[in-house]
User: Fold this.
Amino acid sequence: MKKSTRKLARSAIGVACCFSGLAHGQANVIVYGELDVGVARFSNVGMNGNGAVTSLYSGLNNPSYLGFKGVESLGNGIETFFVLESGVAVTSGGLANGNGNLWGRLANLGVSGPLGSLTIGLQLDPYLLSVILTDPRGLSGAGSAFNTYAGSATYGILNSKIGSTPIVGIRDSNAIGYTTPTIGGFQATILYGIGEVAGNASAGAYLSANAFYDKGPVFLTSAYFQGNDNAGVKVAKNMRVGAGYSFNPGVKINLSYDVRKKPSTGESVDEIGGGTSGLISPQLSYSMGAYRSENRENRSDRATTYAAGLTYFLSKRTSLYGAISRLKMATARSRRTLSAWVRSPDYWQTASFQMVPASV
Assistant:
């Protein structure tokens, strides 16, 4: 009984110290989020591949989410921070997190300063960030690189999971990530996911990294991802390069090339993507992209996505968008899809408040 009491006492002291330190620092909490909802019509779907369906979707163009970010200055350019972010299903009011957790998009804390930042917890995969920044459609659910990165069921190598390890990373749990400061336009991130398998440190572990050069009109990136299954066998080895060039006024072109391998089986997929995005007017923007994935072992097994969209900005926070895309699967007519998204309001709101020091 005395031993249990001592354990409880130590826990209480630890929590009190954390809140005491927070109260004496200058901290700021930001509430942020985005709501996106729209109507989509899919053709060439169903058992025979000749049906059509109209659906109401949440997070068509961009994910709908709500988040909290706290930052506290420790002085000398050093800050501590935390982020909690959850997906929201606007159509039902439920959660929209692929892992089923409350804070399933982001849940991490860390420290940043002149030497870079260290983040611990659930965080965005560095490889995926490289994909997003070279995708002219911004990984939109309304037709983009997402169709082949994580959404094409034909290529199990792209979206399957071996044990608890994803073949491609999206939201990395049990992860420790380090991002360098930006030096001369260069920045890099490396992340290690701990497998937490007793007796085998490599089991369930994964590694993801990216590098960026962003200066003037030129943007360059490369990324790497590898993951092991629960037996420690490497089941994923992915590499990519990408580039972008910005023209005035506000027009950008992008191009990327990915190689995704499954060493345990010898499977390999090549993907190339590219397109353009920019402003037609201060209130109207466009984006267009084309993406092709192909199985190296079976060249007839391939997928091609074409997508284009327009966004009209009603204000700084609200917009309407429309998009049309076509996903063509070479091996099955039922997986060729034509879809359109119309009248989807997109809201973004932030608010902040100061944490008031507690009375002594």
